[in-house]
Amino acid sequence: MFLKVYKIIFSFLLIALLNSNSFAQEKATVKWYTIEEVQELVKNEPRKIYIDMYTDWCGWCKVMDKKTFTDKNIVEHLNNNFYAVKFDAEGKENVVFKNQTFKFIAQGSRGYHELAAALMQGKMSYPTSVFLDESLNVISPLPGYYPPEKLQPVLEFIGQDHYKTTNYEQFLSKKDGVNN
Fold first, then answer.
1. What is the CATH class of 26-146?
2. Which sequence spans correspond to the domains of the chain?
3. Given a cut of 60, is residue 21 above it in pLDDT?
4. Is the pTM of this model over 0.90?
């Protein structure tokens, strides 16, 4: 009888332990918004906007999704300091941004979205990170794949307004000087 109770208690504890480990292993995720949601959110709580410009066929976009946007520090920084938007640069839906309607432009077998072209300043490469200020004005597009260790200082540079007073190289050298 005692052995049977012991087995039940042991089984219960083992199940509880396994369940707690599965919760602990869940990865942090970026809270992604639509561009329309962000336009409303900045009215009540102004923040800078980070836009991940991607396409479905872009291999490096998928790598950023898998490696960069699952990194704990990146997720935390984006969720706490930015409104993050994932925008399909070849999306076919009309988008109203700053009271202007942007559309998909068919071009050959693909095409592009006018808003992507406007925010990326006509330089269509993927992935591209686009930063907007609290008034929805473009700070800078940043083309290319960025692993977490390269994106983190950029998020700090823009998120903490260092871009207004210094260039990126000076920011990095000051940051490195503080860390050494």
1. alpha beta
2. 26-146
3. no
4. no
